[in-house]
Amino acid sequence: MSDGGKRQDPPAGYQVRDRRRFDASGDARDDEGATPEVPGSFGAGDAASGDTAPGDDLPVTFSTFLLGLSTQVLLHLGEIPNPMSNQIETDLAAAKHVIDILGVLETKTRGNLDDGEQRLVESVLYDLRMRYVEIMRRQPKEGS
């Protein structure tokens, strides 16, 4: 661990709820329905108060899953800034890894997607692969 093994409190804006049915000793919890909350935290509270997690109201579909992975690739390619640091960061190995995952998804889902989903997979993969190749071409050759 980079923090020297010390446990850190969650950042402000997050809510931690223990929903386990058993306590640390393995006995069933008597407060089954209770979910202790950390004060000043972010959880799935009232939408009107703005106390919900981002994306809670959006359904997770195959398309949104693909677009989430493609956004990760764009982040690793340095095409978009890291939302946490607002800095451009490049990790080509991570970008290639996620592109490879998308390729596996394309192969494994072939024949099981509707036309729109199939076109989305193909176009996202083509675009990301071309961006990756272009960045690799711009990289200085080793030994030169």
Which class of secondary structure composition applies to the elements? mainly alpha
Q: What would you report as the Rg, rounded to the nearest angstrom?
A: 21 Å
Total number of beta strands: 0
Overall pLDDT metric: 78
How many structural domains are formed by the residues?
A: 2
Main beta-sheet annotation: none
Number of helices: 3
Strand proportion, as a percent range, falls in: under 5%
Helix content: 40-55%
CA-to-CA gap between the ends? Answer: 37 Å
Which terms summarize this structure?
single chain; 144 residues; mainly alpha; 2 domains; extended
Describe it for me?
The chain has 144 residues and is mostly helical. The protein folds into two domains: 11-54, no CATH class; 62-138. The protein is built from three helices and no strands. α1 (62-77) runs parallel beside α3 and α2 runs antiparallel to α3. The longest helix has 24 residues, at 115-138. The two termini are 37 Å apart.
